[in-house]
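Lab meeting, action items carried over

1. Structure of the four-component assembly. Owner: GW. Status: complete.
Input record:
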Amino acid sequence: MTEAGRRSRAWRFLGIRAVTAGDGCAVVEMPTTDDMTNHQGTVHGGFISLLADSAMGRAMASVLPPGTRQFSFDLKLSFVNFVRPGERLRATGRVLHRGRRTGVAECRVEGEDARLVATATASFSVYLPADE
Amino acid sequence: MTEAGRRSRAWRFLGIRAVTAGDGCAVVEMPTTDDMTNHQGTVHGGFISLLADSAMGRAMASVLPPGTRQFSFDLKLSFVNFVRPGERLRATGRVLHRGRRTGVAECRVEGEDARLVATATASFSVYLPADE
Amino acid sequence: MTEAGRRSRAWRFLGIRAVTAGDGCAVVEMPTTDDMTNHQGTVHGGFISLLADSAMGRAMASVLPPGTRQFSFDLKLSFVNFVRPGERLRATGRVLHRGRRTGVAECRVEGEDARLVATATASFSVYLPADE
Amino acid sequence: MTEAGRRSRAWRFLGIRAVTAGDGCAVVEMPTTDDMTNHQGTVHGGFISLLADSAMGRAMASVLPPGTRQFSFDLKLSFVNFVRPGERLRATGRVLHRGRRTGVAECRVEGEDARLVATATASFSVYLPADE
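Predicted assembly:
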């Protein structure tokens, strides 16, 4: 299946794309727009949260066998710098742990100038094909 | 100012509305659509995260004097149930603590049948007008 | 089995006791001492974290069948007020969700004057007897 | 002041020591004992939480001017492997962001065989001498 074909509705809606994915690491990008801004005119943290969750999910998928279902059920973020609309964000997700039923990943979100925008951690529940 | 006039670009983009807000509590709603779905066909956790962040921010704003700037810089979520697109989500944010420079709020996100979808906590940085 | 007999080594070491536990809720207390203080002379957040984790674990155990193993693998805390050594802390843990393999609980930690000291959320991995 | 002289009461109580600290990074160690165990006979997550908080606090202190007060008010942990009592834990804290009033740090806790035990993130409130 092509990379484009694997994009979810949410990814297409927000213009999210995977740049690379494999071996427990995924780089995912999202353009930001005026539609994503809060009252201060900066990008709403919720979109950054969504991007981070996406990068970690893609990283986790890269270490699981086909047919596995997985979803994050815990998400923790620290926002460290503002984002102006128009800036392209890049999130790098990495798997820290992959157990029989759960996994843990972390993520850094950076702006175009490579400044740190946010860090995140997520826990995943994993359902291997044999479990179902 | 009217409620409609106070909606940010992000809120209008996603159809988010405040139902009530005041005294440290805010109820905020968001319709969910097919555009918000992940590969499993359920609503991407990032949108739920965004809604929770929004409800807590609105709750926090209700206890701060006019002219105060505030933003979440820490966001923690636990997802407990899936959401099917089309369902309207309701997030109730409550202020737990409001200090001189920081605040803490919590949130419950529920589906139409009032089942618990997610819980969240956020820390806010607060800049009172006198600080600037 | 008596309540005293069920206290773990860690609980006895720190003087932690369950006041009540049942139906997804547990109230757990811990005295604080000078041995628990940081450089500012207040109780180190780590002990508050330990108490919160304990209360949530006990609450979770109250809704699981005998023989179930469970452990927290995600812990999120917000500290909102300092604690002076000598003060007795009370943590109230509540189960928010109990699934087939995971659970979510929340906790409030209060001081002697019932002021809020910290809030916490934890995710648990649950191994029912039939799983092993 | 000697390193030993700077240990807080909590650190001495639990045998915690800083191995290195400087330039936004700190390595802190803690021996584990039977007194730290839960009902499963493994080290209670609360002690791991305390160690991680300590390492991040020490890392943060290394980038702040003398006389600055700082304390964590948000702590997020993911536990990925059990710890048997008797094992020495090593926590490496790193500053990710240091702003005017807040800071963010992350931490990895490892066992003697360098396996990952837990990861953590903390937000700090910073009071520079000029603020008080």
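2. GW to write a short summary for the group page. Key points so far: Chain C has one domain: 4-131. The mean pLDDT of chain C is 93.
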